[in-house]
Amino acid sequence: MKSLASLSVLIAASLAAACAAGPATKQNANPNIDYPGFAALVGDVETYRAKRLIDLDTFLRYAADEDTIILDSRSAEAFARGHINGAVNLPFSDFTQEKLDTLIGDKSRRILIYCNNNFADNAEPVPLKRVELALNIPTFINLYGYGYENIYELEEVISLNDQRLAFVRRS
Fold it and tell me: Nearest 10 degrees: CA dihedral of 132, 136, 138, 141?
């Protein structure tokens, strides 16, 4: 009986320790998916991204530099309906190291990004998305994760009709 009581105490102590530690992170059987690695990357990028948010005037000044790329990561269809003049399109779902390297080239090249949620109009071709799912956040995180660090994100909310902006729309 004494060993049964000791075993019960040991099991109870183990359960208490497990509960205190919080939920266990399930290891994915797929070696090509790393949620803990992604979560760590998000944490690493948060402070860096906060320093790389720029207003429209700075965005446009940087865009005037011929070695800067304006990357629109919306779908090809959304891009075709309308985009910032001079932007190039690589849909977020198509991001791979090879495609990014082909499009952007030098990892030190300045990249400007924007998304639907930079526009106040909430109309086609840039309807608003849920704020916590705005495409500029995963775009920034992924670019950084692929080794691109010279990224700037449009912070300002503007109108499609803002006179400072050349927005190309499909006729």
Answer: -120
